[in-house]
Hints:
alpha+beta, 4-stranded antiparallel β-sheet
Amino acid sequence: KNSIRTSRVESMDPERSPLASAEECAKILEMRAALESDFSGGKVAPFEDVVGDIRLLRFLRGYTGDVDAAVAAYRTMLAWRLSNNMDQRRPSLEESNIDDLNALPLMEDISVFFPMVPFAGYSMPHGSPVTIDCAGLVDVSAVSLFPERDFENYFFAFLEKRSILLDKMSRQAGFLVKAVQIRDYRGFGLHHLSSPKGISLMQRFVKESLQNYPESMGKLYFINVPAAFAVAFKLIRPLINDRTFEKFRFVTEGDNGAIRALLPRMDAQVLDKLDDVHQRGIQILDRPQSNVPIPRGTKIEVPVYLEAPGTRVSWNWRVSALDIGFSVAVFQCNSGSADGESGIMECGSTWVVEPDRVTANQGAITGSYVSEAGGEELLICWDNSYSLIRSKEVVCTVERHRAD
């Protein structure tokens, strides 16, 4: 019969390898028999990480040993690959060095407004590859302007390269290697939920990743999680099954002890990368007077979550020279209407201080805002995006006064 038989189940014989148990080996044979017609006649390209037994094992474990459910999900994955031309994308991946997870299409462009290190090193003790991204530093306005097809090319290339890497590492290690992800939410706020396009992309890619690459994630660490994160998480929680949710670990903002407990599990390369991406964030809130550089063509946003009614935020700042754009907006989101499939969430904003240019001659600019209802976010913005040549500097203090 003309069928694909790569990475045969015999290579996972439990007498020789801990990859699969005897029961799992038998079930993988059942899956192959059920998928015989799908694999025959050259319908599927014979990529090891797609049709090999290790990929079948991931589906089997992802569906808790249920052969029928695993086969149905695998067929859904094959249909998804066909509709998204995944096999045709392979030549371009090979041209960019298929083993280099950091060589992704448009990575330099996307990392400007979505800081991410696809491969940052390894976690201990099993040598799992680690990805770092900074959800709190995402530029929502830039996401709205970036072509969706370019996001798709970037994200699909990441998923495919990671799948290839995990497959190779699993065969070399003799056990099912999974990835580790560190997602840093420092700076995250309700304003990140103000873009319907951004929410739609997030939900789409979370869903497609979980459905088509099951058991690829070992642990996902959410660090520096602010209070506003609970609103955002409602958007994706319906897409995540309980087995996957058990892999999540949450470390709240300011819980340095928990973060330090996590970091020893990472190698030195991961720690260096985490330091690099942290330096991209600007820490202003509740700090002594800060001198904040704002490079040409960029802006600095400071989100302040106002959880309780009566919380007040005050600001006092000046621009050192020339001028700078300044604005303050308040965001409210109706989290009760979040829907895991449609992503419906009503988020709106109103100006507290409308955008305007402020010159150095105007001296100190002061102001404050008091939240009447709570559950709001104040977004303070210094905007130098209009300047193509000159960088600016602001000297500022932003303080949050919690309600009694």
